[in-house]
Amino acid sequence: MYTINAHAKVNIFLKITGHKEGYHTLISRFMRVEELYDTITFEPCLCEAFTIEGCEGVPLESNTIYKAYTTLINHTRNPDIETFFRSHKVVVTKRIPSQAGLGGGSSDAAAFMRLCNEVCGLNIETNILSELGSKIGADLPFFIHNYPSANVSGFGEIVEPFEEETLQLELFTPDIGCDTAKVYQIFKKHLLNEINPESFKEWEKMDSRTLLETIADPVILNDLYRAALIAYPELKEVPQANEGWFFSGSGSTFFRLK
User: Fold this and answer.
1) How far is CA 229 from CA 65, 189, 212, in A?
2) How many domains does the chain have?
3) Are 175 and 145 contained in the same domain?
4) In the listed set 118, 142, 161, which residue is the last one of a domain according to the structure?
5) Which of these is catalytic: 9, 15, 67, 89?
6) Does the active-site annotation cover 89?
7) 234: CATH
8) 94 noted as active-site residue
9) What is the per-residue pLDDT across 45-83, written as a single tens digit (0 to 9) for each?
10) Are 128 and 207 contained in the same domain?
């Protein structure tokens, strides 16, 4: 049996820098949440086909882990992958809420790729694994590199480690799921023209604690917060929306320093 933890992340800041080729570009500080993680386990099992347990309600073809599996097969053409998963099933122990801005699905897929790379002896270098992951989702490169903190830019494919203390954070996720695609669509429609790169110049050089303590405004720190409030006005009724908490990614998780 083989096991790996798939940690959540928060966005200390997230600024949209443009829109091209049908996607938004950004610059963001991603920080790993040490205390919150899913667990991915490869358990012995005679399987007729690739099998995932613990993700009930998600069609196999839509599951990020399955997409990671097919991506590795298509890239390597290595029959050992399919052979291994005829004698092992993937068991996911979920703790990270879905549609919460914490990157749970992306982290699961990235952890799967890292563990599969090791267990199946694929010997894929991290930068190549990251490039493969970026085709599945914009957050995967951060999770594949597995840095505690990093500046992420471009479409999410540029990941640069940032040396700093990992912060102790308190998280609150309301019972509101935020669809990332919908939030980005709202941003493009209503807020894209307001981008001002000078307003967040050199933020990537500031440590996360300083950013949270000196800028301190969740709307300024995260461009997607306003879009999420438009898409999901019920977020305004969450007490944490008015008590000095910050907002991660496209939501719906609020966080603050412990």
Assistant:
1) 30, 14, 20
2) 2
3) no
4) 161
5) 9
6) no
7) 3.30.70.890
8) no
9) 999 999 999 998 889 999 999 999 999 999 999 999 999
10) no
